[in-house]
Each structure stands twice: as structure tokens, then as C-alpha cells.
Amino acid sequence: MYFHYGMNEVEYLKAKDRALGEVIEKIGHVERETDTDLFSSVVHHIIGQQISTKAQATIWTRMKEQFGEVNADSIAGADVGVLQSFGMTFRKAEYIKDFAEKVKSGAFALQEVARMPDDEAIRALVSLKGIGVWTAEMILLFCLQRPDIFSFDDLAIQRGLRMVYHHRKIDRKLFEKYRRRFSPYCSVASLYFWAVAGGAIPDLKDHAPKKRKK
Fold first, then answer.
1. 37 contacts 69 by C-beta, under 8 angstroms
2. Three-point CA angle 161, 149, 111, nearest 5°
3. Alpha carbon separation from 116 to 81, 95, 106, 122 (Å, rounded)
């Protein structure tokens, strides 16, 4: 399943911002996979922190081969050492097991998160060990498919903004200006800035100051 959006979102963003409109025209429809299961999405995002997509996929495959279904029962019943053996750090294994135990015991009402407004859902997820604001925002976007997620902590989005608008630096004030402009469809804007940052339009370059060699 891919993040769902259509002409309403695209036409709104084109009307709001000519530069982004040109990007949308050049790239076309962006397909980004989503995970509809909230539990597995949280686990997947904890695993993926500060490692490559390939390494994340390898660990995830090993977990699915071991447990069949990655859920609160299977993870809570596993030893931390077993979780670590899939290739993750000991700390991540502890975070994941703690999360599973809280969900299984009812200490963390996971399904309530899906019914919360964005800000409340982020606060709830951040209360978990191993979940920061950026991770919570990615869960909202790629699992719950919230339409208005624009993460200041996402370096690729900042890179995409620099490339499209020729900025040297994106500070919080400038970022919030763009957030207001793209709302209520910031998530779709995010998809395009990620694509730009990944080289989807070769002519666009990053305008960040080059670091001086020591």
C-alpha cells in the first residue's frame, strides 16, 4: 500500500507555490510505501534509526522469519538477546521489548493513538522509550497517513527545501513559513521534497555552504 493522495492535494499545492508546482509537474506521482499496522510500524521505525534502509530490511526479514507476525505477544515473549541477535543494538532491543510489554499489558493504549489529533499522537508516541519527535512524525505519515506532516528534524526535507528555493540554510522561522504555505497537505509536499533531495531532478543542487576542509 502507498501513501494515498490525488488531484485535490496536488492542485492545492500547485496553486499555493509555483516552484513546488514545477517540481510536481517534473516528478509526477510519488509512490511511497506505508505500513498500516501501528505496532509493526513503531517497531520498524525504532529498528531503522541511524542505520541504512538495507540493514533495516535485513533485520525486519529476520524478525518475520522468527516470529511469523511481529506483534505485541511475539515480541514481549522474546528475550532481549534474541531480539539483538537479529542485528539491532542492545538498546534498540530493550526499547522494542519495553514497547511490546506496555502494549500487551495495556499500559500504553496503542490504538488510541490512531484517534488522537497529530500533536497529541506525537506526544503519546514520544513518551515511549526510543521514540523521538521525528520518529513519531514518520509513524503518523507512513502508518496513519496523516495529511499534514512536515518534519523540521528531517534533514532530507531541509535539503529539498534548499534545493528548490535556493536557500543556504533552513532555520525554524523559514521552515514554519513553508509549513503554513503547504498546510493542510504538508505530507504530500514532504514526498516531493524527499524526492528532490534524492536526486529526482538532476538540475537542482543543494545550496548549503560547503564545509571547509581542515
1. no
2. 155
3. 34, 23, 17, 9
Check if the beta carbon of residue 2 is closer than 8 Å to that of residue 32. Answer: yes
Written as nine digits, the cell of 194 is 524527499
Burial class (CB in 10 A: 0-12, 13-18, 19+), 53: exposed
CB neighbour list of residue 202: distance below 8 Å, 6 or more residues apart: none
Amino acid identity, position 8: N
C-alpha cell at 10: 496536488
Widest distance between CA atoms in the chain? 53
Cα dist from 134 to 21, 35, 107, 139, 153, whole Å: 26, 17, 23, 9, 6
By three-state DSSP, how is residue 10 classified? helix
- Kindly report, residue by residue over 97-156, the tens digit of the pLDDT: 999 999 999 999 999 999 999 999 999 999 999 999 999 999 999 999 999 999 999 999
User: pLDDT tens digit string along 166-185?
Assistant: 999 999 999 999 999 999 99
Alpha-carbon distance of 86 to 121, in angstroms, equals 29
Residues in the chain: 214
What's the pTM value of the predicted model, to 2 decimals?
0.93
Under 8 Å CB-to-CB from 64, ≥6 apart: which residues? 70
Q: In Å, how far are 41, 75, 112, 113, 159 from 125, measured between CA atoms?
A: 12, 18, 11, 8, 26
Q: Which three cell numbers stand for residue 30?
A: 510519488
